[in-house]
Structures are given as C-alpha cells and as structure tokens.
C-alpha cells in the first residue's frame, strides 16, 4: 500500500444530512430521535431564543460516529400534541390539561409529578395503581386525513417498589369521526404504534416511537399512552410528540 492509499484508508467518510425530532435537551447535547433511534448530538451554540427545544424537527450532520445538530427547521413537522410535557401550572394535580383518561383494566390514579429528572419541562405524567392496571391517557384531537402517515414518540420509565422491571409502555393511535368524541366512541380500531416491554426505572427513560397510517373512517387522531403495570408501580411519561410525515 502506498502513502496515498494509506491516507485514503483512514479518511473520514462523506458527511450525511439527516433530520430528527428532539426528545431531550441538556446544556451541551440534544437527544434526537433519528430513524426510530435515540441519538446524542452536539449542537451549535446560539442565542437562547434560537436554541432547539423538545419537539423541534432538526437538521443533523453526521460524519462517521459524530452527530452535530445544526438547528431547528422552520415551518415543517411541528409537534401537534398540546401540553406534550404534562406541565400543570407548577402544581401536582390530577389529569393534566389537554389529556383524558380511559381505564382498560383496573383503576389507576393519574397526576402530574415533579420527579426531578423530567426530560422536558418540570413535570411528568404519573400513572399509579395499588393493583395491576392497564390505562390509556390520551391527547387532544388532531385533524388527519385517511392515508396520511404520522411519526409518534414519547419517553417512558417507571418507579418500581422492588424487583426487576416488569411494566410495559405503549403508544396507540385512537381514531374519531369528530373532535369532540372521547374514548371509547371511536371510528376505527385502536392502532398500536410502538411498545417497549419492561421499561427501565426512574430516570432511565426509554424511547417509545413508531409511524402510524391514518385508517379509513378517521377524521381525527388522539395519541394514547398505554401504561400496563403491576401493583404499586408508577408509570412515568414525558415528551409526547406527533408530527405529520406525509
């Protein structure tokens, strides 16, 4: 191998431009959901008012194993979930604003919780039951059209009283004929978007994400977090994002 070949063999590969959704922000890095994988990215130092926030669609430059978020993309792919980070006017209250609860099995207590490690904002959604429970907490109504595709994601974890992780977290698309109907008055079967079994404890948030296609009969979508847990477990949710792809 000559010198030119030696240099070429260790040269960096061409850069690649990607897009992704911001799911967490720190002082030095962004966590960006790219191709359904949570990726840690450095980002450019900008004025505070221009800094990316959770829910932003960002342009990301990748070269080899290095990712650099260049900034938020204006005018496209906005998050359609109202109160996506479960903020509640600085108080621990019941069902957060813009969200609704449907018990599939058991009877869970739903409230906002200041955990101290919320990825977005100050509060997380807490879903607790003294006995085993299966619970939807679902969003505002989002206008959709049949055949559209939507990217949906959230961060989930759980507080376990003891033992190994056993709780399951899932995201569902719920479909309605109008913006006022609530579950279970749906216009199409519930659609599983993504599920993570045995979610990690406390601050170890798992990314739950996938893509859903709007079915026939649907004019509105509500995104549901589904918490499936045993007795004494508190499911935690934050940063629920839904943005249209096509």
CATH class category name of the largest domain? Mainly Beta
Number of strands: 16
The structural domain count equals 2
- Which oligomeric form is depicted? single chain
Within CATH, the superfamily of the largest domain carries the name Galactose-binding domain-like
Structural class: mainly beta
Q: Helix segment count? A: 1
Question: Per the principal axes of the C-alpha atoms, what is the gross shape?
Answer: globular
> What ranges have pLDDT less than 50 throughout 5 or more consecutive residues?
none
Distance between the termini: 49 Å
Mean pLDDT: 90
Give a summary of the structure in a few sentences.
The chain is mostly beta strands and 246 residues long. 3% of the residues lie in helices and 48% in strands.
Q: What's the layout of helices and strands?
A:
Blueprint: H1 3-10, E1 16-25, E2 29-34, E3 37-43, E4 57-63, E5 66-72, E6 100-105, E7 109-113, E8 124-128, E9 133-138, E10 142-143, E11 149-159, E12 168-176, E13 188-196, E14 206-213, E15 220-229, E16 234-244
Parallel strand pairs: 3-5
Antiparallel strand pairs: 1-2, 1-4, 2-3, 4-5, 6-9, 7-8, 8-16, 9-15, 10-15, 11-14, 11-16, 12-13, 12-15
Provide structural commentary.
- With 246 residues, the protein is mainly β.
- The protein has 1 helix and 16 strands.
- It is globular.
What key attributes describe this structure?
16 strands, OB fold (Dihydrolipoamide Acetyltransferase, E2P), 3% helix, mainly beta, 2 domains, five-stranded mixed beta barrel, 246 residues, 1 helix, six-stranded antiparallel β-sheet, 48% strand, Jelly Rolls
